[in-house]
Amino acid sequence: MIGYVTLGTSDLERAAAFYDKICAEFGVGRMFETETFIAWGAAGGGAGVGLTKPFDGNPPTVGNGVMVAFQAENQEQVDKVYKLAIELGAQDEGEAGPRGSGGFYAGYFRDPDGNKLNVFCMG
Known about the structure:
Structural class: alpha/beta
CATH superfamily: 2,3-Dihydroxybiphenyl 1,2-Dioxygenase, domain 1
Shape: globular
Distance between the termini: 23 Å
Number of domains: 1
Largest sheet: 4 strands, mixed
CATH class: Alpha Beta
Number of helices: 2
Strand order of the largest sheet: 1-4-3-2
Order of helices and strands: EHEEEEHEEE
Oligomer: single chain
Radius of gyration: 14 Å
CATH architecture: Roll
CATH topology: 2,3-Dihydroxybiphenyl 1,2-Dioxygenase, domain 1
């Protein structure tokens, strides 16, 4: 149902370098690009993620309670992507590990613009 999620950035080049590496871990690359917008994903695949300089020209802001979650294949991939994000300068928001019951395993971090992200798997 969701095609893609867009996050704001003040520095598209810096943010793109971050997302190029994170998205490569899920086997996807850039699928659309303009001077002010880049989207990663695969046509016909799951939801993609996009970055944009805000259309109105104002600085981007981070929504309180807003988060984008990347679905991993397994706990090893969660650990790998979480570690990669931190190495790329992401801010830690919760080390990768089990959360609650039901096999939910996740790591939380903020990208260079402060957008909250999560990488998770179930079971």
